[in-house]
Amino acid sequence: MADQAIADNEGAAAVVTEGDGVRRRDFINIAAVSAAGIGGLAVVIPLVSQMSASKDVLAESTTEVDISSLQPGQAIKAVFRKQPVFVRSLTEAEIAAAESVSLNALRDPETLAERTVEGHTNILVTMGVCTHLGCVPLGAGDGENRGEFGGYFCPCHGSQFDTAGRIRKGPAPTNLEVPEYAFQSDTLIRIG
Amino acid sequence: MSFPWAQQYEPKYGLTKFLDEKLPLPRLVYNAVGAGYPVPRNLSYFWNFGVLAGFCLVLQIVTGVVLAMHYAPNTLVAFDSTEHIMRNVNWGWLMRYAHANGASAFFVVVYIHIFRGLYYSSYKAPREMIWLLGVVIFLLMMATAFMGYVLPWGQMSYWGAKVITGLFGAIPLVGEGIQNWLLGGFAPDNAALNRFFSLHFLLPFVIAGVVILHIWALHIPGSSNPTGVEVKKESDTLPFHPYYTAKDGFGLGVFLIIYFAFVFFMPNALGHPDNYIPANPLSTPANIVPEWYFWPFYAILRAFTADFFFVPAKLMGVLAMFASILVWFFLPWLDKSPVRSGHYRPLFRKFFWFGLIPAIVVLGYCGGAHLSTTTILLSQIFTAYYFLHFLVILPIISLIERPEPMPYSITEAVLGHDPDSKLGPKPTTASPAKA
């Protein structure tokens, strides 16, 4: 490239000092190309970043759920980040069933205690999104098929979840995701 | 480049002479798809499908631009605006059905075009670049078709978008970030619909650009032909116009009869009824299936049910699905046989007809069917065969196969004798000219 620059600028060669020192023209060339390159990269930042979730989408990224009317054995379907979230009040029998399972028998070993908040182990909050391909599992509504393990059943490809929302059978690789959430009061959950 | 005996463009009138000096566009067309492009004289109807694919692209762009004048890419009204096109817009129903079935027609035509390339080894030297560009076009087509299917914002649109963008979530560490970045949110919503519309409008023009490169690359060695013997002299070729414009015109007529039979008499036969239900993020359709042209790839995706060493099953499925097309990029170097045409390759022919084609057909069936242990098992077997065919069987065949005798020239293949042939006429058992 340097050869070509010299060849291109034979007329200008007369004003350039002889020797190996950095020529004025080389300096300008490198500086100009570098500035253009950095400028080009800087343009990419907004072009890529505009694709990410916008402020209004992020503003809707928390959801509050009132569980004052939730009876044991029932579940509420709420919407969190445009996706269903299940808030379920477990019965004594369901808690016992979840706690009686050996962790070694689980594909994605987690205890019920790890999947709930201390002091509220009877309230199970999970995403209503199957970890296989994103379908909405059945089991939150009254009379819906809860599968062999009494938790949730995904109708798409037959994944079965137990009463702690853990994968027990079928193609889903992991347990139903537990979103970040906290109890604002005994009857109000803030998700996200 | 062209053969030395190609007819020369000679403008006769004042206007054409003027144009030829200032902007020789008529000359370009004459040399590309006119009398100035000499083409092997023995092309079969399989060689119609390139022109038909070009026709489909134009059809999709024309109907698509019209639809975009009436469609609104917003989750609140997208579904309604699609119904508005169907019910209120003058001829809107025709435009939408022509566009939806045009997508299927485009894929039918392109699949036959690819089939032709695979059987006659059109991907071999000196035509590797044509093949590589063709695979790029196919990938762009898949992206375009997927995003177009999301636009009506029906149940299948929504859940298709969710499952397909969910594929990126399988990538370790960065997957979820990429998924959210692609969607502009945590699930398909207005941001996703808007960008899909924007890209669905843009990509066809990118495809058109790559098609121009595809044709440019084609015109350097010239078209292949069913014998796979290269053009040697003038008696091997005919000018594209009028000979192949006429043949392509006939093929186009047959294509249009079949295409409009769908558009007018069974416009929803290839669609899915669930997509006439507005998108509902809280309720999943019983069987999420893509359009038929993605079925074989969807079957490969679903074939992986168990973790493979440390790679999770879901990621394996995603990798295999992408690899099933990316392997085509290596085809010119995997098949080392110097013989191009499957007509003269007995072993290749057997594995092609009784291996690859049934594998793709069964995978297609499994991809569209309800998931069951049978369809999963079939998908696994034929996914394995699919990759074995390209990565193991083809290279081995090209080493051990003894090809059948080939004609000296295209002229001999057509006329049965060629005065230039030193060895004189010889029997060609599988002459395609007779087929």
TrEMBL record, chain A:
Q: Which UniProt keywords apply?
A: 2Fe-2S, Cell membrane, Disulfide bond, Electron transport, Iron, Iron-sulfur, Membrane, Metal-binding, Translocase, Transmembrane, Transmembrane helix, Transport
Its localization reads: Cell membrane
Q: Which InterPro entries match?
A: Rieske_2Fe-2S (IPR017941), Rieske_2Fe-2S_sf (IPR036922), Rieske_Fe-S_prot (IPR014349), Rieske_Fe-S_prot_C (IPR005805), Ubiq_cytC_Rdtase_Fe-S_su_TAT (IPR019470), Ubiquinol_cyt_c_Rdtase_Fe-S-su (IPR006317)
Catalysed transformations (reactions) = a quinol + 2 Fe(III)-[cytochrome c](out) = a quinone + 2 Fe(II)-[cytochrome c](out) + 2 H(+)(out)
What SUPFAM superfamilies has UniProt attached to this entry?
ISP domain
Q: How does this protein lie in the membrane?
A: Single-pass membrane protein
**Essential cofactor(s):** [2Fe-2S] cluster
- Subunit details for this protein? The main subunits of complex b-c1 are: cytochrome b, cytochrome c1 and the Rieske protein.
Additional facts recorded = The Rieske protein is a high potential 2Fe-2S protein.
Protein's recorded name: Ubiquinol-cytochrome c reductase iron-sulfur subunit
User: What species was this sequence derived from?
Assistant: Blastomonas marina
